[in-house]
Specification:
With 494 residues, this protein is mainly alpha-helical. Helix content is 84%, strand content 1%. The longest helix is centred in the N-terminal third of the chain and has 69 residues.
């Protein structure tokens, strides 16, 4: 079997990610214009809880399956790879079902806590995506562990394409139906509305829910693509003829899988916690800031739609800027993903020189992506906002927030691949602690800075920058320390 190097694997994933992000922009631009800032606020509120549950049940699974598969292949136990795949599919499916039920159960409580009952339909629509994502994680981890990144790339492109068609299409269908129904009866969903603008405000939560249903359908499509590729192009077929009897029981393999997955899962959950911190602190903090100095927010208040609150407008604007922020680590994370199997093999072979070369590749290419992206966010945010979202209510807030988030995007983009590096070096637990400390700083920053009238929403961006700068510094220190340990272990004692 031909196995991909870090660079070739990153190129495969990079090309796929470029297509994914292009399709994502083609989805996000019309969707933000269809739903508006208020509708995107409902969309983001539902999606934030989804990402927290997703992090709890999905995120660590792909990396754990990849690392276990790479370890087995390094030891020549190719038959165990197949057993590991079947076991991971079974247990990951159970985790996905639990996550789906958890999301459905938390929906009413969550919407009550954030004072946004209109976000609940969206949570109903996106809940099954957790199950499909867990199934996809098992399959992707198997392919990536054999250093075959092509199936992951193809499935992600399929997801993005289906998301574009379904999310935009379904939200348009809901609004089209609502407009026709309002013109015919003067009512919308059983409620009388004085104008189409008022009717649209009633309908927006359901249009947002339709867009989230598109995400569920896209995860199903991605899982089906992976299943088809596994059926027709099994990644370890050429090794099965020479496999030895398995040396590990299924129980041992699954125990090891979860042992690797749990630290990454906790790390992902803590990453999602920063979004939850924003969701819980931005609306209340903005309300306090506006109450303390209403004259500073008068121009924004005049742009509010019927029934819309200032906190909803500003939170929606913040999440739209944050979407650009997350583009940077989504690309650099690919480098860590492709390096993970190679780093695992190098660590098991106690080859510090190979680790050093791979580390230079990961950090070098990450910096090459992060620095230009950060400069673009910092100095071209108005232009980027116009291109991505057009001129709509609160566009200046989106641009200002995007510029303030630029340093954090660079730090986060450099830190994310280092999580995978630490995992490959056998210290997947360290990013958990680093992110926990960073989240504490983020929470304190939000609570202190957002209520200040002169800062308001800018306080959340500043707290994010400080959070990821701290995490990046800790990651660099930990990688340096683990590499030194490996070198010391390899060197003969004098």
């Amino acid at each position: 079997m031909k196995r991909q190097s870090i660079v070739s694997g990153a190129m495969v994933l990079g090309v796929g990610m470029l297509l994914v992000k292009l399709l994502g922009l083609l989805c996000k631009i019309p969707l933000s214009r269809i739903l508006g800032t208020a509708g995107m606020g409902y969309f983001s509120a539902s999606y934030t809880l989804f990402t927290a549950v997703y992090g709890l049940t999905v995120t660590g699974l792909t990396g754990a399956a990849s690392q276990c598969t790479a370890s087995l292949m390094t030891q020549g136990r190719y038959g165990d790879c197949k057993k590991l795949l079947s076991g991971s599919i079974k247990w990951y499916s159970l985790a996905g079902l639990a996550g789906c039920l958890l999301l459905l159960g938390l929906a009413p409580v969550f919407c009550t806590l954030i004072h946004s009952p209109k976000s609940q339909p969206g949570l109903w629509m996106i809940a099954p995506a957790v199950l499909f994502s867990c199934l996809a994680a098992a399959l992707r981890g198997h392919f990536e562990g054999t250093r075959n990144m092509t199936p992951t790339s193809l499935s992600q492109v399929a997801e993005a394409g289906v998301k574009l068609i379904c999310s935009v299409g379904l939200s348009m269908v809901v609004l089209w139906w609502g407009k026709r129904e309002y013109a015919r009866t003067g009512q919308i969903l059983g409620q009388t509305a004085a104008s189409w603008e008022e009717a649209q405000a009633i309908l927006l939560p359901w249009a947002s829910a339709a867009a989230l249903l598109g995400i569920t359908l896209s995860t199903l499509a991605g899982t089906l693509v992976l299943a088809l590729l596994l059926k027709h192009q099994p990644p370890v077929t050429s090794f099965l003829a020479q496999q030895a009897p398995p040396t590990l029981s299924s129980r041992q393999q699954i125990r090891r899988l979860w042992k690797l997955a749990l630290p990454i899962t906790f790390s992902s959950v803590i990453t999602s916690v920063t979004s939850l911190i924003d969701l819980f602190t931005i609306p209340s903090g903005v309300r306090r800031a506006a109450a303390a100095a209403p004259q500073l927010y008068l121009s924004l208040m005049q742009t509010l739609e019927p029934g819309q609150q200032l906190s909803e407008l500003l939170y929606g604007a913040y999440t739209m800027a944050l979407a650009v922020f997350h583009l940077v680590p989504s690309f650099t994370g690919l480098l860590g993903k492709t390096a993970l199997p190679a780093l695992t093999e190098s660590r098991m072979g106690q080859n510090p020189n190979s680790v050093g070369r791979q580390l230079k590749l990961v950090v070098g290419f990450s910096a090459l992506l992060c620095l230009p992206a950060g400069l673009a966010m910092g100095f071209a945010s108005p232009l980027m906002t116009h291109i991505l979202y057009g001129v709509q209510d609160g566009w200046q807030v989106i641009a200002q927030t995007m510029a303030l988030l630029a340093p954090g995007a660079v730090c986060c983009g450099l830190a994310v691949p280092l999580y995978s590096v630490l995992q490959g070096l056998g210290r997947a637990d360290l990013p958990v602690w680093f992110l926990l400390v960073g989240s504490g700083v983020k929470l304190a920053g939000n609570l202190v800075l957002i209520p200040l009238p002169q800062l308001g929403l800018a306080g959340a961006a500043i707290a994010t920058d400080v959070c990821y700068a701290l995490v990046l510094g800790c990651c660099f220190w930990a990688v340096w320390r683990e590499k030194r340990k490996l070198e010391t272990k390899k060197s003969p004692t004098r």
